[in-house]
Design goal:
It is built from 4 helices and 23 strands. It is mainly beta. Among the domains are: about 1-80 and about 95-105, no CATH class; about 300-335, no CATH class. The protein has a 23-stranded mixed beta sheet that branches. The chain starts with a strand and ends in a 7-residue tail after the last helix. Residues about 80-95 and about 280-305 have low confidence and may be disordered.
Length: about 325
């Protein structure tokens, strides 16, 4: 049985801010921004077959589905209907199984990009528009990123390197680690169960940034100003910058510099480390006078809950990490 190569070329004018959607399983994916208004997708198949004719037949069955209309292009792997039968598929693919594939994409940097992948590693470089990535058992690497990013991962490591400001970053993972490095973040929301989170860059004033984990640690490399509020009974905090500390054991507040950027970290057992940036390019900031002292936090004393029932409620999604930490600290069950 020999190996044959077949290529599918897809091209569509979506405009500078049109939508590109890619849905794949298994192949390695490389996406890069390119000037212009055209989105291009190239799928290269490596097919194991007995002959050219058999390879052609497998290729026709394996071609990606394309839906192009106006300023939108959607490319997805084929769906095999039940009517084709497992026996027909087995005869078609033979001992070689489904063909391997690699996917290369080029699209306008400001396009509305949507990616869904399963067991597929993906690299995306140079995109600045609205982006949404959903990946299961595949790693995600974003390079020279900007704009708005929404990322969901299951057993996926996520690496983000930005060379311009990220307007909004929303990351949700189960077990993969997250690393985000860039000059600045407009707003950040990050949630993991057991994955660790690393963030380096200057956080914007105004909106509150939030990081929530069950057991994952948080490492922050920030500028000279930050207020980080930590909610967690089993959380160790290491602040390696000059700061002042306020609050109680289960709800502590650390004020660095003028304290204007606000970050809330909630965790059952994850730890926190805050240090000066080591890799992120710095954006000059105007000097601002320090804020008045932050008011003391309210007491969280109250009748204790049964710890097991609280953890079960958290596991079943009936309460969030904040509520679980509050109850374990002795707060009331009432909302």
């Amino acid at each position: 049985m020999a190996t044959f190569t077949r290529t599918q070329e897809i091209e569509h004018d979506i405009g500078e801010s049109g939508r590109l959607t890619l849905r794949v399983t298994d192949p390695d994916v490389e996406m890069r921004a390119a000037d212009g208004a055209t989105a291009r997708v190239r799928v290269t198949f490596e097919i194991r077959a007995d002959s050219d004719a058999a390879a052609d037949e497998i290729f026709e069955r394996s071609r990606y589905r394309v839906n192009d209309a106006g300023g939108s292009l959607e490319v997805a792997e084929p769906e095999y209907s039940a009517s084709s039968g497992l026996g027909a598929l087995a005869r078609l693919f033979g001992a070689g199984g489904r063909p391997g594939a690699t996917v290369e994409v080029s699209a306008p940097p400001g396009c509305d990009l949507r990616y869904d992948g399963v067991s597929a590693d993906v690299t995306a470089s140079g995109f600045r528009g609205s982006q949404e990535y959903r990946t299961v058992s595949g790693d995600l690497v974003l390079d020279r990123a900007g704009g708005t990013l929404r990322i969901k991962g299951v057993s996926s490591d996520i690496s983000l390197r930005a060379d311009s400001r990220i307007d909004h970053l929303d990351v949700n993972t189960v077990s993969g680690d997250v690393s985000a490095v860039g000059p600045g973040l407009g707003q950040m929301r990050a949630t993991t169960v057991s994955g660790d989170i690393e963030v380096e860059g200057v956080l914007d004033d105004g909106p509150q940034h939030r990081v929530e984990t069950v057991s994952g640690d948080l490492t922050l490399g920030v500028g000279q100003d930050l207020t980080i509020e930590v909610r967690g009974l089993s959380t160790d905090v290491d602040i390696r910058l000059p700061h002042r500390t306020e609050g109680s054991r289960d709800r502590r507040r650390y004020v660095i510099g003028n304290g204007r950027p606000q970050l809330l970290f909630s965790s059952m057992s994850g730890d926190v480390e805050v240090h000066a940036p080591r890799r992120a390019p710095q954006v000059p900031e105007p000097r601002t006078p320090p804020l008045p002292p932050v008011p003391p936090l309210p007491s969280t004393s109250g009748a204790p809950d049964d710890q097991l029932s609280v953890l079960r409620a958290l596991e079943h999604g009936e309460i969030d990490v904040d509520e679980a930490a509050r109850r374990l600290a002795g707060g009331s069950n009432d909302a």
